[in-house]
Amino acid sequence: MLDINKIRADFPILERKVHGKPLIYFDNGATSQTPTAVIDTIVDYYTNYNANIHRGVHTLSQEATDKYEEARIKIQKHFNAKHSYEIILTSGTTESINVIASGFSAILKEGDEVIVSALEHHSNIVPWQMMCEKAGATLRVIPMDEDGSLRIDLFEEMLNENTKLVFCNHVSNALGTINPIEKIIENAHKFGAYVLIDGAQACPHIKPDVQQLDVDFYVTSAHKMCGPTGVGMLYGKQELLEMLPPYQGGGEMIDTVTFEKTTYAGLPHKFEAGTPNICGGIAFGAAVDYMNAIGFDNIQEREHQLLDYATKKLLEIDGLKIYGTSTKTSVISFNIDGIHPYDIGSILDKLGIAVRTGHHCAQPIMDFYKIPGTVRASLSFYNTEDEIDTMIEAVKKAKMMLS
Length: 403
Ligand code: C6P
Fold this sequence. Notes:
Blueprint: H1 4-8, E1 17-18, E2 21-22, E3 24-25, H2 36-49, H3 59-79, E4 87-90, H4 93-105, E5 113-117, H5 126-135, E6 138-142, H6 152-158, E7 163-169, H7 181-190, E8 194-198, H8 210-213, E9 217-221, E10 232-236, H9 238-243, E11 254-257, E12 262-264, H10 278-294, H11 296-315, E13 320-323, E14 331-336, H12 341-350, E15 353-354, E16 356-358, H13 363-369, E17 374-378, H14 385-402
Parallel strand pairs: 3-15, 5-6, 5-7, 7-8, 8-9
Antiparallel strand pairs: 1-2, 4-10, 9-10, 11-12, 13-14, 14-17, 16-17
Helix pairs in contact: 2-10, 3-10, 4-5, 11-14, 12-14
The protein binds ligand C6P.
Residues 29-30, 92-94, 121, 123-124, 169, 173, 198, 200-201, 221, 356, 360-361 line the site of ligand C6P.
């Protein structure tokens, strides 16, 4: 059992007030809060060893380089990648996806097919559309079901010898539903297609093992798992990362440069042009340490308690509908009959409660349900039942005011 009061003390922001009320932070799907261990790592970097990495012989640069590469190894171990150089540090999930989409734009050809799921965030749709447009490939979509699950039966029918790539999120950001990525990877591989899994919403709750999954590419952002913004990960199998062309040209991604010809550095540097987010990378490592110290089994158990508690209480409110009811993480997306989600979100904010409202960068899901958006409460292990009770009362109040 987690000591929630002790855990909450790790997050200084939870002490603050919003509109004179204690902050209740239920927008963890957008970004999670930052524990003192990560904040201290950031302060320590800028206070004691801020320097550019892989470039200097001086002590500060070497210290920063060592810490950055230590963080890469922490991330490698966390995701159980075979080699640390299979972990590319990027600015986040969006950039990680764009690295792969840009690389495959040069490899795919007309007649090739790529498959994406209906449950994707725009980051896992738009780069592939751009890639297909450049390469002349066709984008196909795995349909979803009313309960927020994917039609895996139809996915299996869509696969054929032209299928080259499959993209799917591990967990839907708009609904919290968990996709059967093991099945998706296994079936795609039967046809020789590569699979990219967007783990942005899974990694705060689940510890993926990329070797066990046998996934080709797995991407995530640090800021949803207690780390800072502006840094994330692209995991790729060595042979695939070696096959793909670099994403950006610049310093540190080269081996030799002349005006006639440039040769590229090996992994991971080939994909890390320019000065990276050094402090962010180191703090990402600290966030991984923090979450592992709490333990993903404990996190899941706690978040399931919160999810069950909140779901039961919300469903007692007349006219309230929850979207996405298949197996899921601690995300509740809901609407109340006849009330715009934005109006509910605004009233909750006045009461100190942070939720996200709108289409959640997943417009196709909203189109499927024929709604403009939802109110999304995304809960984390540091939330409490008392906070949920306050939200329930606030939702009832909002309903009364807006009906
Ligand atoms: N979703 C949300 O409120 P970046 O912005 O690159 O860190 O992550 C993009 C992204 C990609 N895939 C999924 C499944 C995501 O949930 C997100 C970010 C946030 O749902 C902000 S839009």
